[in-house]
Design goal:
6 strands; alpha/beta
Length: about 180
Amino acid sequence: AKQTKRKVDAASASNPEAAKAEPNQRVGVLIAADNVSQQDRPSLRRFIGETAISAARAYGDFQGRLSGWRAAAQEWTELELVVQRSYTPGKNAADMRLTIDAVKLMAGPTPPTTLIFVTNDSDFTPVVEDAKRLGVRIIVMGERTHKALRSTAHHYLNLSELRARMDDELAAKSD
């Protein structure tokens, strides 16, 4: 019964403090820019804080509606924009690229101890399951994230709620 309860908690939402990285952690951040607003970048960056970042990447075609990510990358120097054009309508090449990079990070010489997937897409569920089997702590952040992905992660944080909470904390500090 306790395992079921834990799964339900992760499927709905985790407390940001519970999801925070522990000392000596290395965080990998993988952002599906197609379905997450670049306006969430400041909250995400504040959430990560001083934790060492092994990789921070946003994936997409950064023209048109995603062009705001270019400015976001200027403000967050560790953030690499991985340009991936969609060659065939209806297919998401950026998701494939993100998944491949997640596997490469986990197989690298210094794999991240925590992977943060910023997405709403359940297509990432298999790579999240594999990462968990390898002992990687998984945090999923999104706004309308599919239940399959939320329930697979160790922690799920709703980006709107996180942004509101971080803004409230900043306002309280400035008072």
